[in-house]
Amino acid sequence: MRARLFSWILGIGGALAPAVTQAEEIGNFGAWYAFTQGEGAEKLCYMISAPSQSLGQIPNRGEVGLMVTHQVGGKVRDQVSVALGFEPHKTRYTKAKVDKTGNILLRLVDGDRVWIRDSNTDRTIVARMKKGAELVVTGMTSNGVASQDTFSLDGFTRAYAAISLACGLK
Questions:
Q1: Nearest CA-CA partner of 91 in 135, 136, 54, 143
Q2: Are 159 and 125 in contact, with CB atoms under 8 Å apart?
Q3: Average pLDDT over residues 71-75
Q4: SS3 state of residue 12
Q5: Which residues pair with 48 in a beta bridge?
Q6: Domains of the chain
Q7: 133 phi and psi, to 5 degrees?
């Protein structure tokens, strides 16, 4: 799993910080891996996890991963994104749910990646993830095939603390 996650990082690294090419691993925390990338004000600190379970028969599906990102100085904080491994449906939003809490919509789309629209909602889901056991992401491909990916939150709080420390955030 570590090699797949690292290849996913390298694949999206350009989208996160075009001038940066090398990620440095902070550590592994349960189901989560924590990394830094870049220097100074452009330094990113992020954590990623692969799903523990994926449902849906989606041919040629790409890598799937959940990511939480900070940037030094707090320019980006608690940014939650998901690589779905497919282009999502244009009119059906991807949803994320921690344990039995309500769904949060991931409305911003770039290729196979989805994000939450506003930073307050990012902070809400991160707070839920710190207390939860699992996060379930449900989506639909552009041609109408449903997906459901379950991510373990084992080690989430420790990985979150590590990326926050690495980016100088409290």
A1: 143
A2: no
A3: 82
A4: helix
A5: 33, 67
A6: 2-166 (2.60.40.1880)
A7: -105, -35
146-152: strand order across its sheet: 53-55, 146-152, 134-140, 94-98, 104-106
Cα 75 from Cα 26, distance rounded (Å): 21
**Amino acid type, 27:** G
| pLDDT tens-place string over residues 7-16 | 444 454 444 4
Q: Which of 111, 60, 59 is nearest to 87 (CA)?
A: 111
Q: How far apart are CA 23 and CA 89, in angstroms?
A: 31
Percent of the chain with pLDDT over 90: 77
The token duo for 152 is 């373990």
What are the pLDDT digits (tens) for 138-151?
999 999 999 999 99
Query: What is the mean pLDDT of the segment spanning 121-145?
Result: 96
What tokens does 143 get?
């041609």
pLDDT of residue 10: 45
In DSSP notation, 24-87 reads: EEEEEETTEEEEEES-GGG-EEEEEE--SEEES--TT----EEEEEEEGGGSS-SEEEEE-SSP
Locate 56 and state its tokens: 């849906």
Distance of alpha carbon 9 from alpha carbon 67, whole angstroms: 10
